[in-house]
Specification:
This protein is mainly α. It has helices at about 1-40, 45-60. The radius of gyration is 18 Å and the shape is elongated. The model has no long low-confidence stretch (mean pLDDT about 85).
Length: about 60
């Protein structure tokens, strides 16, 4: 999955520089991580269940 993300980012960087220069590329470089952060913050939390499952697995 990391390879695909890196390939997409590389092509997006080249495209944005060709169409808008450094200013546009920088804007995309700021917006993409902010979108990822918003996605992370709005994701349903299941940490308690994950910790409980992990604890059950370690106790066996």
């Amino acid at each position: 999955m990391n390879f695909i993300g890196g390939a997409i980012d590389s092509s997006l960087g080249g495209w944005s520089y060709a169409h808008g220069g450094w200013r546009f590329t920088s804007l995309i470089g700021i917006v993409m991580p902010l979108l990822a952060l918003l996605y992370f913050l709005t994701e349903k939390r299941t940490w308690a269940k994950d910790i409980e499952t992990l604890a059950d697995g370690l106790g066996q």
